[in-house]
Amino acid sequence: MLKGKTVLLGVCGGIAAYKACELASLLVKQHAEVHVIMTKNAEEFVRPLTFEALTKHRCVTDTFDREHPEEVTHIALAQKADLVLIAPATANIAAKLAHGICDDMMTSTVLAARCPKVIAPAMNTNMYENPVTQDNLERLSGYGWTVIEPVSGLLACGDTGKGKFPDPQFILQYVLKELAFEKDLAGLRVLVTAGPTREALDPVRYITNHSSGKMGYAIARIAAFRGADVTLVSGPTALEIPAFTNFVSITSAEDLFREVTARSSAQDIIIKAAAVADYRPSHVADEKIRKSDSDMFIPLERTPDTLRHLGSHKQEGQLLCGFAMETSNLEERAREKLKKKNLDLIVGNNVKVPGAGFGTDTNVVTLITEDSVESPGIMSKEEVAGCILDKLLSLRKQG
Ligand code: CTP
Q: Is 162 inside any structural domain?
């Protein structure tokens, strides 16, 4: 996602410096060109060679580099960068950057860079919570920096509190948000549903399905990267909550109906990727149901159909997208649902097709509108998410 982008990674002298190695590696895996600048103190924690091996670029540590006198290194790097990322940042570097002090390679380069800047402070809780540090971070945010808050936990110094360097994967999300996508969904409110629902039978059992939530989560993540204000309403999944989304957790089809309809009128686009149970047990036992020697029959009743409800209460200009998971006659059945539920787009897939089943990282979909059918072939769920959002955006432009 970062092909053609240059990230300037500034690494400062704190114990979290070792985590910057993983961060550099994650950026390289996303095909970014990564240049690392280390402060003198950072070299006490990690060797520059580690970053050089990971990024295949010289790690810069010294303002007065006699090996390359022909280029004013810090200006060259500053001009090249699409993003400056200081991670981990010490209280000292935050203070210097907030006040324009540039007495080493890192601070001089950053002062000369005009690109977006992100800082991820990591330090002892008391240092982080000190009003001086807080003021400095606030000051940086006032200058347009994105400040990634540290997380709470057990710190290297033995204290417990806020100050831990976040998971490098989490920091990567900020880089992707800044660099990977055009913000063509900015200003739009998008609600996505994802995952399965669970319909209780008694206090220990429920009816559910195989949905992993991956497709809906990919849509929510990409929509947020593209600038939308995203709400993700999700059934139980094992997935990380996508960054930059408003997350609403639900369990049953009834919960989903309640949470979605409470928010639906404010949405520009609603995408219903959740695999909602169509039936639930008519009666939920208060006590665990005991077995007997005879067979058991469970009476079921219909759950509310949220998508159908949304289709019959559609707001002016709102776009509705549903999913149809089929095992045969895909186009015909999906088209029926498109009509019956008053949708603008339906994403059909046949679970029997290789690469399109539950829990996979790929999908094979057919995008169906009233007057078009597109089958883009097997793709990653992220790519499918991109196609769905592109299609909805083009429908929106057509009015
Ligand atoms: N849906 C919903 N509420 C339900 C059931 C489904 O909002 N109670 C939504 C799903 O999120 C999905 C679409 O409707 O976007 C699926 O349509 P549906 O006709 O329910 O598909 P199936 O459940 O597969 O129905 P059928 O058994 O008729 O094929």
A: yes
Q: Report yes or no on 184 lying in a domain.
A: no
Instruction: Determine the residue of 209, 306, 329, 335 to mutate for testing ligand 1's pocket, defined as the one with the most ligand atoms within 8 A of the Cβ atom.
Output: 306
Residue 334, pLDDT > 90, answer yes
Q: How far is the CA of 3 from the centre of ligand 1 (A)?
A: 38
Domains in the chain: how many in total?
2
* 21 belongs to the catalytic site: no
Determine the distance separating the centroid of ligand 1 and the alpha carbon of 305, expressed in angstroms: 7
Supply the residue whose CA is at minimum distance from atom 23 of ligand 1. 278
How many angstroms separate the CA atoms of 225 and 244, rounded?
Answer: 8
Residues 78 and 45 in one domain: yes
- pTM for the model: 0.91
Same domain, 27 and 150: yes
Cα 29 to ligand 1 centroid, rounded to whole Å:
37
Domain around 29? 6-179
My answer on whether 281 and 138 are in the same domain is no
Domain boundary among 145, 179, 213: 179
Q: Are residues 242 and 347 in the same domain?
A: yes
Closest CA to 180 of 388, 328, 386: 386
Same domain? 219 vs 77: no
363 φ, ψ (degrees, to nearest 5): -150, 155
Residue nearest to atom 9 of ligand 1 (CA): 307
Q: What is the pLDDT of residues 75-115, one digit of tens each?
A: 888 999 999 999 999 999 999 999 999 999 899 999 999 99
Asked if 57 and 33 count as a contact pair (C-beta separation under 8 A), the reply is yes
How much distance in Å is there from the Cα of 267 to the middle of ligand 1?
20
Same domain, 167 and 56: yes
Q: Active-site residue among 102, 157, 321, 387?
A: 157
- Please count the helices (runs of H) and the strands (runs of E) in the chain: 13, 20
Query: Do 172 and 30 meet the contact criterion of CB atoms below 8 Å apart?
Result: yes
pLDDT at 359: 84
